[in-house]
User: Fold this.
Amino acid sequence: METPELQIKRIVLNRMERCSVCHHAFVADDIHVLSRQPDMWMMVVQCTECQARNYVAAVLNDGDPAEAKRALRRLSEADAEAEAEDDISLEVTPEASGPPVSAEDVLDMHEFLRDFDGDFKKHFGQSARG
Assistant:
């Protein structure tokens, strides 16, 4: 006998067979239940190939579809804010990164790598120890 969670996941899979971004086929393990209430389940369906996320609200019995839409909107906004925070933390300002790389820097690195034998300790070990 199927559990209620597996039943709900199968219903979601029947509606969302593939990722809308990369067309990868979803499986039940791609669906994660975020919250359960007697009249509504909130889930996220995340593609294992491209990491695209879709939020799903399953409205049960006499659940309020308008409340489900509001809950989905809140989840989407929170996700967008979290992604924006990640983007901000990864930004590098020119002052923090140093001077721009010149063509001469690239040629020097090319020559270094051409003759590099893979021995990092020989080239970098002394300066790392102090």
Observations:
- The longest strand covers residues 31-37.
